[in-house]
Amino acid sequence: MIGDYINTLGNHKALIIDIRENLGGSDRYWKGIVSKLIKDDIKVNGYRIYRNNSEIIKKYTDTKNIKLRPIKNLPMNVKNNAPEETLQKFSDFENTLYDIKANHNLEFKGNIYLIVDEKVYSSSEAFAIFCKETKFATLIGQTTGGDGGVIEPVLFDLKNSGLIVRMSSCMYLNKDGMCDEEFKTTPDFKIEDCKRTSDFKDDNCIKKVLDIENII
């Protein structure tokens, strides 16, 4: 359905993708959309860091067959920019890669805008990270909620009470070593009141795009 819609955009000047209040789900969805809107393949790399000296985390990474390397082997630029806890409290890291194949029959040549707010989180945040790093889209709205680029949380039970605990399995660093959970993603154009409205005429984010594109 989305692919059919994209095929109708050949003569359009711009495309707005609105992910406000999207708390995440699966990277597969946004990667599928991106693949239909690019003419050249795009690759984005980063790093997930783990406290693999923890019995719980080690069991998790072993079960998932995650290929880990010692934290000391991170590139120097990543070490310099990463939080100080990276080398002090984390033991291992994993290389990550978003490798998205292009649609060579794409007819749309306009600009793409991604509208975000403080509730954009997890996999939707990964989409925001991707757009900002690759310039696939111009970001409009508020600073996001962060926590993109990671994988499923760890679940384990407390021996005495039997309560199930859910916690993060890792932390994501971009290619430069910046921690997304700490800095999140800052839009290219900040909008103070970026609440979605039922009427585009009152939506400040939509109005900003129309202004940039000189569309009345």
From TrEMBL:
Residues 8-190 form the Tail specific protease domain. It holds the Pfam family Peptidase_S41. One of its GO terms (biological process) is proteolysis. Signal peptide: none annotated. One of its GO terms (molecular function) is serine-type peptidase activity. This is Tail specific protease domain-containing protein. It comes from bioreactor metagenome.
